[in-house]
């Protein structure tokens, strides 16, 4: 019946001309697209119209609900371990460069006694995705059954899986946005994140909303609006939701690229790793544990004492991976060296993200295979001393022809300055000159 009332060209035209989509139009177009009755080219046109014209909070809420309704919704309210109910909590980031936080964070939360049912995504635009990263571990699979997710949550406290039957509309739209330049849209980001996260059935959610050059939304005001929108969507569905606004002007840590980021995550799980990655992991863990009602545990201690590492190893081996197998690294490498001595100045996160994408770590067409070993190693972070001739960045790829464009992307995106390194911002563990603090605000 619905098929005769609605048609894609009319829905596209309404949004193209700045109109508002009705609840019924949204329900129809999401359902019809999920079933293959609206074509990719029609959805692409609608996504571009939404990108250009936006959606109001009512439209975003309905779009999110329709995406959740396109698939299953998991329920872990009866999850138990040793006869006791285990609280579930998850985190999602709006997308950054070098943002490998999910990998140590999931293990930390599991080690502290909560469980994380994490429906993760693939790379999007210039940002990496947790699934692409973890699949660089030999044997690791994210295609696990619901029964296995439940078993892992109860036994290990963590499962990281492809959304699969959860919000299948998002899976299709996400892949389409990735290759149609329609990623950087507040309504599309908010509905994409929240449809997956609400469908996965966690009791509570913490969102890491990025601010700065490497974020999808460019101004702090837009990121604040995104955070407030997502918190409202979660609370409206009865799921306690909080957001941290965090800096994404410079890449997180010293690596960007799938396998390189897994290696750095293992350093963090072994009690080391870059200070900003550790700081953000611990801050997000504190919020998650608070929402899960777990107190008296110190998340940082689980990184120092190896209990988070134990959970990560158990998680990877339950999902077929071999943490001890060597991680892939691109067959071709180029090193960018310091032109003079001084202090590392700025590093533009967006340029690093695009460099990594050009090296082969992301996709230019739907379903393309990403290179596990492609990426950038950052030898000097902002504020660190630099000697003339020493390595600043190493670029890796399996495809030598990709190297010139990647080097071109990085060109002009960093500086070595003469000044002495300034003191870090008080209260921040992050070294380097006073940039914006890593944790900018908390929205609850
Ligand atoms: N993460 C998502 O799941 N979707 C987006 O649109 C951006 C980040």
List the helices and strands and how they pair.
Blueprint lengths: L1 H4 L2 H9 L6 H12 L5 H14 L3 H13 L10 E2 L2 E2 L3 E5 L8 H10 L4 E5 L9 H5 L11 H10 L2 E5 L5 H11 L7 H14 L4 E8 L8 H17 L4 E7 L7 E2 L1 H12 L5 H17 L7 H6 L2 H12 L13 E6 L4 E6 L1 H13 L13 E4 L6 E2 L4 E7 L5 H8 L3 E4 L21 E5 L1
Helix pairs in contact: 2-4, 3-5, 5-10, 6-12, 6-13, 6-15, 10-11, 16-17
The structure holds uracil.
Uracil (URA) binds next to helix 10.
How would you sum up this structure, described in words?
- With 444 residues, the protein is of the alpha+beta class.
- 42% of the residues lie in helices and 16% in strands.
- The protein has helices at 2-5, 8-16, 23-34, 40-53, 57-69, 102-111, 130-134, 146-155, 168-178, 186-199, 220-236, 258-269, 275-291, 299-304, 307-318, 349-361, 403-410; strands spanning 80-81, 84-85, 89-93, 116-120, 158-162, 204-211, 241-247, 255-256, 332-337, 342-347, 375-378, 385-386, 391-397, 414-417, 439-443.
- Helix 6 (102-111) runs parallel beside helix 12 (258-269) and helix 6 (102-111) packs across helix 15 (307-318).
- It is globular and about 70 Å long.
- The mean pLDDT is 94.
- One of its GO terms (molecular function) is thymidine phosphorylase activity.
- Residues 425-444 are annotated as: Disordered.
- Homodimer.
């Amino acid at each position: 019946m619905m098929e005769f009332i609605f048609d894609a060209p009319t829905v596209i035209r309404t949004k193209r001309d700045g109109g508002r989509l009705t609840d019924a139009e949204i329900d129809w177009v999401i359902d019809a697209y999920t079933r293959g009755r609206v074509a990719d080219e029609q959805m692409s046109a609608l996504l571009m119209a939404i990108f250009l014209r936006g959606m109001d909070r009512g439209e975003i809420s309905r779009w999110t609900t329709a995406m959740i309704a396109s698939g299953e919704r998991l329920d872990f309210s009866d999850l138990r371990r040793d006869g006791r109910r285990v609280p579930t909590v998850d985190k999602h980031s709006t997308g950054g460069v070098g943002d490998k936080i999910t990998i140590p964070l999931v293990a930390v939360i599991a080690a502290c006694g909560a469980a994380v049912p994490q429906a993760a995504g693939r790379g999007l635009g210039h940002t990496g995705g947790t699934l692409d990263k973890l699949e660089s571990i030999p044997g690791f699979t994210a295609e696990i059954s619901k029964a296995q997710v439940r078993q892992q949550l109860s036994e290990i406290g963590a499962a990281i899986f492809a959304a699969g039957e959860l919000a299948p509309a998002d899976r299709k739209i996400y892949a389409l946005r990735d290759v149609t330049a329609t990623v950087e849209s507040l309504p599309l980001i908010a509905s994409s994140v929240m449809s997956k996260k609400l469908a996965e059935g966690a009791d509570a959610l913490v969102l890491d909303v990025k601010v700065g050059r490497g974020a999808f939304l460019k101004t702090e005001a837009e990121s604040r609006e995104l955070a407030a929108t997502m918190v409202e969507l979660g609370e409206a569905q009865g799921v306690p939701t909080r957001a941290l606004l965090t800096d994404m002007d410079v890449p997180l840590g010293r690596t960007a690229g799938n396998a390189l980021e897994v290696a750095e995550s293992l350093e963090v799980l072994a009690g080391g790793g870059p200070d900003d990655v550790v700081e953000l992991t611990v801050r997000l863990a504190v919020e998650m544990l608070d929402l899960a009602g777990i107190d008296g545990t110190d998340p940082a201690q689980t990184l120092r004492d190896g209990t988070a590492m134990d959970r990560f190893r158990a998680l990877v081996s339950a999902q077929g991976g071999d943490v001890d197998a060597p991680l892939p690294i691109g067959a071709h490498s180029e090193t960018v060296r310091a032109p003079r001595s001084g202090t590392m100045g700025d590093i533009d996160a967006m340029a690093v993200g695009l460099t990594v994408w050009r090296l082969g770590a992301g996709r230019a067409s739907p379903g393309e295979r990403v290179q596990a070993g492609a990426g950038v190693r950052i030898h000097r972070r902002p504020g660190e001393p630099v000697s003339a001739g020493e390595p600043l960045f190493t670029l890796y790829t399996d495809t030598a022809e990709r190297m010139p464009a990647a080097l071109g992307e990085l060109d002009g995106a960093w500086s070595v300055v003469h000044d002495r390194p300034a003191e870090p911002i008080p209260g921040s563990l992050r070294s380097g000159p006073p940039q914006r603090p890593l944790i900018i605000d908390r929205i609850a």
